[in-house]
Design a protein that fits this description.
Shape: globular
CATH topology of the largest domain: Jelly Rolls
Distance between the termini: 38 Å
CATH superfamily of the largest domain: Regulatory protein AraC
Largest sheet: 5 strands, antiparallel
Number of strands: 8
CATH architecture of the largest domain: Sandwich
Helix content: 40-55%
Length: 307
């Protein structure tokens, strides 16, 4: 199968569980703002100068880098050259694999996504990196087959899905072994701008539930307002307020799920929104669904996952 013929691969019957984007270049899919999602993510970087912000840390990516994300941590790429920016991504729900991993006695294969705190593995595109890249390609191919089968028959092919799951488990096994070897990236010395950008993101992460002003941030970090906003945008690719709102949105999603009886007003205030109306508008704009609808959707999904 031609590498460039399967950039977007998603089986609709599995759209709550697994999605693969293989060797996507430039803007073949949008480069989204600072975001989070409930699926785990395996991200493989091919090339194109790019800084990647994960929570409040900034990484300069190199070809062969692999990022493991638990999904709930806010993250965003900031490529310098959009046309050459090339990556593959796999998103999957751990619930989709729960039963198989339990039967295999292999639940520990998910540990790297929990214990490594959203880490970067630097492979230099060696044999281990090529294994991960090839696995994402095969999984993307399976999703194409599943889509085609669904369109042709209107039914899910359980054998294809079983084969897909086994391929994902093999990939997780390989990543687990890499993590056991402490294949983690040793970060290089950062520039002054990068150090300041990380200091800004760290401060914002600690204060996003409060009423934040650029004056206060600049004063506490001993920076000028212009410099603080300029270098943060230059380094991360978005504004200070983009980051703050991303943190607030992520907290809201978390609270809507773990505190289902808490009112929307309480949830919005706990996350730093000044009014429930602004919160509702912003949530609908970013998530495509109302906060109440999102909460109900997650409730239904939890019921479906129950044995």
């Amino acid at each position: 199968m031609d590498d460039w013929k399967i950039p977007l691969c998603q089986a609709k019957v599995l759209d709550e569980w697994i999605t693969a984007f293989y060797r996507v270049q430039g803007m073949e899919i949008p480069i989204v703002n600072f975001h989070s999602h409930h699926e785990y993510e395996i991200y493989y970087f091919y090339g194109g100068e790019c800084k990647y912000l994960i929570n409040n840390q900034i990484y300069d990516l190199q070809p062969g880098d692999i990022i493991l994300l638990d999904g709930l941590t806010l993250h965003k790429p900031n490529p310098r050259s959009i046309p050459t920016y090339t990556r593959s991504m796999l998103h999957f729900s751990p619930a989709w694999l729960q039963e198989l991993l339990t039967v295999l006695g292999a639940l520990k294969l998910l540990e790297p996504f929990h214990n490594l705190n959203n880490c970067l593995l630097r492979t230099g595109n060696d044999e281990s990196g090529q294994f991960v890249e090839g696995s994402i390609k095969r999984i993307a191919g399976f999703l194409v087959q599943i889509n085609e089968e669904m369109k042709r028959t209107g039914q899910k092919n359980e054998l294809l899905e079983a084969e897909l799951k086994m391929d994902v488990v093999q990939l997780l096994l390989g990543i687990y072994k890499m993590a056991q070897k402490k294949f983690t990236h040793v970060r290089k010395k950062m520039t002054g701008k990068e150090q300041h950008a990380e200091a800004i993101s760290t401060w914002l992460k600690a204060h996003y539930t409060e009423k934040i002003s650029l004056d206060q941030l600049a004063a506490e970090l001993n920076l000028s307002k212009y410099y603080a906003s300029h270098i943060f945008k230059e380094t991360t690719g978005f504004t200070v307020m983009d980051y703050v709102m991303g943190c607030r949105l992520n907290q809201v999603k978390y609270l809507l799920e773990i505190e289902p009886d808490r009112s929307l007003t309480e949830v919005s205030r706990a996350a730093g929104f000044e009014s429930v109306s602004h919160f509702s508008r912003y949530f609908k704009e970013k998530m495509g669904i109302t906060p109440s609808g999102y909460r109900e959707k997650k409730r239904m999904r939890m019921r479906d996952d129950e044995p």
